Fold these 2 entries.
Entry 1:
Amino acid sequence: MPEDDSGTKRRTVLKATSGAVGAGAFSGLASAGDATVEVNVGYENDRGRGAAVEAASEVVREFNFDALTMRVSRNAIEGLEKNPDVRYVEENGTMEALAQSLPWGQDRVDSEVAHANGDTGDGADIAVLDTGIDSDHPDLTANVGAGKAFVSCETKGGCRYGVKPADNTCYNSWDDDNDHGSHCAGIADAVDNSQGVVGTSTTATLHAVKVLDKCGSGSFSDIAAGVEYVADQGWDVGSMSLGGSSSSSALRDACQYAHDKGVFLVAAAGNSGPCTDCVGYPAAYDTVMAVSATSSDDSLADFSSTGPEVEIAAPGDTINSTVPGGYSEFSGTSMACPHVAGAAGQLMANGATNTEVRDTLNNTAEDIGLGSNESGSGLLDVAAALGYDSSDN
């Protein structure tokens, strides 16, 4: 039962950095000597192909369409460009993997300031209690540690309400067959690896505790067992981007058990907004930090639940993060929650206890002018929580 987040706009993987060089681009290079250059040549007919092959010092590749890649003397390029049977001559440029981006939410809470100062969560253990984590995503795999499934991982069959399971192979029982858990994991702790996105923490260990099935649903008992498991492993943070309007005594007991064992628990406040006094469970339990969601203009996201249990706000509207097979933008308090989980991981990596983390996050939150029932202490400020000045960033 994750919060109702909508996914849009899966990102492309490549972008052009060196465009095709058009006809005439090599004009005037004959004087540069007889060095060879690798080019792509498009031809109109067999005469054009023959002229290209004759000029080539080496044919590197022939395509099934009317083009080839070859190495050719710079002195021969001008003649090929002028040949009416040759459509184009272009330098064989390159394309690169899409550069890593800093999602707006990470920028807003100043995660990058902490990273620049060496605070990346190294040594912390962050458990994502959700639909699992994609075990082979390039932005996650280096940080993924142990995992355990309390529900089965499946990729076949549909879900009620038209929910479509993720296109992901279950290499492990705790793999993500929904998208939701991987998206939250990336927000909390995506690797800083020059591609894709970056998380609030970047080097903490992520643990997949699969308590929600491919349809995004899990029983009170499954979720309680997952919380208990996190506590018994001695992990630092339990991130719960899930909830419902009904309380569960078993889940309440599990959260108390984990809290008493030193786990910092954080949960999404819920997506029932606009509303008042409507924070869901487990976020409403006093052992759990409840997180509301903001938009990029620092307004309260219109879907965010509010109430006296809200302790802190974090970005949750149109957040880009990891999903099986790529990246996507989701919105929800589910997206706000792991921002806080990642920050907690950084603090606990530095030796803070779960209660110290809670106090620090509250005491350093930024006042953005929202009511206390909307944002609690204010907007998460990762840099300030770690003792850095982010006022100019």
Note: The chain is about 25% helix and 20% strand.
Entry 2:
Amino acid sequence: MFCRMLLSVLIRQKKKLFLIALTVALGVSLATAMLNVMFDVGDKVNQELKAYGANLNIVPRGSAVISEMYQLDNNDKQQAIQYIKQDDLVKIKMIFWAYNIVDFAPFLTTQATFNDKPITVVGTWFNKHLNIPTGDQVNTGMLAMKSWWTIEGNTMTDDNLQGAMVGESVAKQWDLKLGDTIDIISTKTNKKFTLTINNIFHSGGAEDTQIYVSLPIAQNIADKSGLVERVEVSALTTPENELARKAAQDPNSLSRTEWDTWYCTAYISSIAYQLEELMPDVRVKAIMQVAESEGSILQKTQLLMLLLTILSLICSALAISNLVTANVIERSTEIGLLKALGATNTAVAMLILTEIFIIALLGGVFGYFIGFGFAQIIGHTVFGSFVEPKMIIIPLALIMVILITFLGSLPALRIMMFLRPTDVLHGR
């Protein structure tokens, strides 16, 4: 009997129930889209922010300690500089969080003269292909990390041992153009090096007064074969919290549980610690301005998405409340007759809730797939990439459907409970 009554209601009230299903579908679709993006936005926001520079700086441990201990100025730092072995750089991609290391590039700064005037020459990897001992292969270098630079000319390559990238200020000072050749003389060995201007770049910083060359050329100019001065690293990280800040102060102060949690989470401090574990001769410094900005932007983005999700559910619940209330009022005579024949408030409520939940679940299924489509539109429009489906969204969507349907039905159930058969059957 219950099933027959339920089927009869679904057929007779199909237009109004369709509106309820549509309301649920719209609410769930927006919530699904926001949650999918929210769970996936962390890596995508970090990936976008990685285009604006490194968040870790690797320097030789000796020179870092001396500089910090004696507060050396720039001239004294040049005397205290130590170096990192170039062959050790593959270890950067061998830590626990190796796949979170997006890019890294070594730098070796040296001095030379051009037209009898001093000039800074910087050696680096532009786009280096590396074979990692673990069997992985990666491409990394400065060009990917300095994507905001404006560069004229063909892309610089690491095997171009005669080419140079010249800063905009240097080019203007000596009226240099693409294809020109320049002779620079090493202040270290007094050797002359002839370079062809492959690129002219604008960085907006001090780099515009420098010349960038392939790392082997800078090592020859500085007479530092196989050595680099520092390494900039761009890593995907988890926003810092109290545990991360505590570990950054003193990892040994952590309990065993805290240690495991910190070490196995991609905090910038744990990545720095793991790099120092594998490369004991270096000091890894986190560029906290970048790291904290990333965390702040990510948290605010996720909070915005969560608020939009909650707002969409509240709006859906209000819309369902109006629709179900109107449905109950319209069927008041039918409900009064059921009560007059002996039906309890619980039985009538179960009938109303069952029909609403069936329609809501159908709307929720459609809403989930529509929401996933919205998530892909957001992903491709904002981040230019696919948003991975998260299985946790399916039970969350089910909970959302049940929650907004139940809350939206409460006002209608209240009206039904106080409805008296004598009033509705006599037209009062």
Note: The chain has two domains: 1-49+293-426, 55-286.
